[in-house]
Design brief:
The structure holds 2 protein chains of 2 kinds. Chain A is an alpha/beta fold. Chain A contains 7 helices and 9 strands. In chain A, about 40% of the residues are buried. The chains are: A alpha/beta, B mainly alpha.
Chain lengths: ~220, ~270
Amino acid sequence: MTILQAKKLCLRYGHHYAFKDLSFKLMDKDFLCIVGPNGSGKTTLLKCILGRIKPTSGTIILNNELKKHQIGYLPQNPIFKPAFPASVYEVVSMGVLNQTRLLSRYPKTKIESALKTLHVENLSHLQFSTLSGGQRQRVLLARALAASTNLLILDEPSNNLDYSSKQDFYNTLTELNDSMTIIMVTHDLDHHNLIGNKILSLNPKLPFFGSTNDYVRRIHD
Amino acid sequence: MINIFIEMIKYAFISRAFFAGLIISFCSALIGSSLVLRKQSMIGDGLSHVAFGAASIATMLGFAPIEFSIPIVIIAAILILQLNQNTKINGDAAIAVLSASALALGTLFISINQGTNVDLNSYLFGSILAITSHDLNICIILGIIIISTFILLRRQIFAITFDAEFASAIGIKVNTYNIISAIICSLIIVVGMRMLGALLISSLIIFPCLSALQLSKTFLQNTIISAILSVTCFIIGFITSYALNTPTGATIVLVNLFTLIVCWVYNKLR
């Protein structure tokens, strides 16, 4: 089943192209890593997929069953006020806002299930700002999971994580990939060879879309 | 203290001011958490100066100050938000430009319109004598609108306050909610200015939230504690000002300041 298809996507700012003639297709349970140097349009592409930026030309077609705003999203380097009074439960609850009407109650089972899947249910009563970097990323991933169990979009989620937290985080992503499609922007070249089955390179010197194995082979050639 | 309170309430103008103050202090605490946590505390200060300018123009032209000021302050609030997003003028600079200009306009109009010096003081520093039955009715209506809007949109307000980027990604219309917050803030400022004055009304939005931040771990807790502290400080300040014959607005603000210091010390010591 096709989850997402991009056809001849172009995004231009004045005379500068963020990306040009970009086409790729993702099937159910694909794990796509988007790589490329700074300023190559990785985050901009994610914003196009999320519907927050309109491409200059080309189209992005989402699977009919996937509503535009029911995509789990983990933003790049979210900045939070150090003493922000928000519990882990409140943070994860944000994820189900896209499925909750104004006067109805939160779907508790979805929140609890997301907390459980990410093994953070024992932290739910704690203040988010008191957690470690690794714990925070897991909570934010739980929030993304509460928003969607079909497609996750992660923008450099391993930033600011130490080696062991990173490994732990990637293992979790691999487990989640058994049941859902994941798109992840990464700078982490040591890891992107080890995670995911597809790679989209926005590097102008090495444009590529295909399997991770083919990409590795191409780099070594 | 209860005896003093019973004695106070016998006067119709004081009971009007008391009920109006309860509504204003409760409503301002609701919106305060979101504004303070998003580093938009000064928007209240800027808007209060705009409200002062608008009220002075209304007085000169013979219009009802509250009704005349509400749309002007709402437009100013939206303008501040737009300036903040779309131009090279920073949020705080936009607030400073609007607030100084409105204050200057207000002072100018009052000086042109001789014989309204009493109003100048009451708008700047507030006066419980200024609260009429009509003002109280407006206060009740606006209070109902503000409280129900907050209850209805509290989850969206939290989401935008905590992480606007994620909120936007899951389909929450961040700009629309920003405008709703700005409108609520404008309404509070306009009705509150009559009692606390343009120079002090923004403190009702900022102080209770800062005090609550010292004690709370969740957004819900912060909002509830903030509302309780705001109403409590108002009642203590209101009665104290009557007992000591001090200006009401200033006394309420100083009670809020004292509460903030106590909460801060408690937070440091625990």
